[in-house]
Structures
1.
Amino acid sequence: MRFVACVVGLALVGCGSSVISSSPDAGRPVDAGIVAVSLRSLTYQPANETVNQGMTITWTNDDTVLHTVTSGPPGQPDGRFDEQLPPGASFSYTFKSPGSYPYFCRIHYTMGMVGSVTVAPTANP
Ligand SMILES: [Cu+2]
């Protein structure tokens, strides 16, 4: 029984060794998260966001004008996502692969309404 308990412990936090992370969320799956980005005053807030692989970002238009959340370098849609958000609307996208994902508002990118998401690989897939 002692051996079985040890194996179970290994799967969760390691067998007998100390847990490296000091986060109170240690043990929570890193991909179980939703990050909120607000569209406000012709900007994305925050404009640059880093998430872990598998996490979802939800953009919400808190402005009084139409915006879009369009993937790609400013002015160059890459087809990954392209969503029109009227005031009050939301759009969610789950980032399944590590990498750097620029995005922009089709209407206001020339005024600097651009953002980016950096997706970090999960440590223990
Ligand atoms: Cu816009």
2.
Amino acid sequence: MAGQHGQEAQRAGTPHAQARIDLSAVRANVSRLCEAAGSAEVMAVVKADGYGHGMAAVARAALAGGATWLGVAGMREALALRAAGVPGRLLAWLLTPGDDWNAAVASGVELSAGATWAVRAAVRAAQAVDRPALLHLEAETGLGRGGATADDWRALLETAARAEAAGYVRVVGVWSHLARADEPGHPSCDEQLAAFRSAAGLARRAGLTPDVLHLSNSAATLTLPEAHFDLVRPGLAVYGLSPVPDLAAPSELGLRPAMTLTARLASVKRVPAGQGVSYGHRYRTARETTLGLVPLGYADGVPRHASQAGPVLVAGRRHTVAGTVCMDQFVLDLGDAPAAPGDEVVLFGPGDRGEPGAADWARAAQSISHEIVARIGARVPRTYTGGSASGEL
Ligand SMILES: *Cc1c(COP(=O)(O)O)cnc(C)c1O
């Protein structure tokens, strides 16, 4: 009976909420991306704690799946991967002058430079640790984010070429990032491709000989082969989520979502019709019903914007968040379905049991799947299946 579910959960000592990460899905997704990339190599993007999945564990699984590079945003992330002993070529692309450039260069972390100050910082670090810095020059090709504009590109190339001639740096890559790869066929993709080819041509004319040109995120890896060049940088697809959710579900892209987020009901009670639910009483019961309390809230990454909208699965049936999502909890109106404390609530997963996907939460919160998984908080324990978190398969 319903009551027994709760007792069983207690006996098994299962956490009141958890994110289960299927590392075999990560490996399979990466090998699918390798296939899509053709002759290009694959850099698995594991920034933001591996999009919330656990950075070192997914990095190892991605390497086992065929990725030869890892990509992160900040230097601290790169140094954490090195400290964890994760092998592979490793690029960090979001750097500031105060970062620990010496440590990064000393540990062979490859670094992006989108301005001359970054080349100078790399040169100083190379001098300090007596090892050349490996640089990827970032061109602004239309995203309007990082990278040197066409006006500044020549000065960046000249500075980098001088530093290379002096032996302090080696320019191993030229790269940029697409603004609208998730809208396949958008004319801005072609414009950015042309700007990127031109930036790469100028680099060669400046005497630089990068090993790799790279431009593609997950969406371009899966939908825009012209943008693959020598190396692709998928993030979201590594975790089995669709970068084009309105066009294709993960399974249609050969991907399998790796994270399943579940919780156990913390309280279950009957309430009369007209009961206001949660802060602001945005939900009111239409008739006598059962309310179930889910111990996950916006501090755990459940978007407050998904109040009255986020979908969950309880005992094989879909329900919607009732009222406002709180910091630690939200409420479900379970109707007359039998329910007990300890019963499992599935927020999202691969869909095997009819549970919602991260993309459904993204839709409910007017966001994207990247944000849904990346914001699952540190309070939610990660557990691993399909290989151990330390990388042994
Ligand atoms: C985050 C990021 C990626 C990965 O993007 P996805 O859409 O998750 O595939 C690739 N390159 C850069 C520079 C990024 O910041």
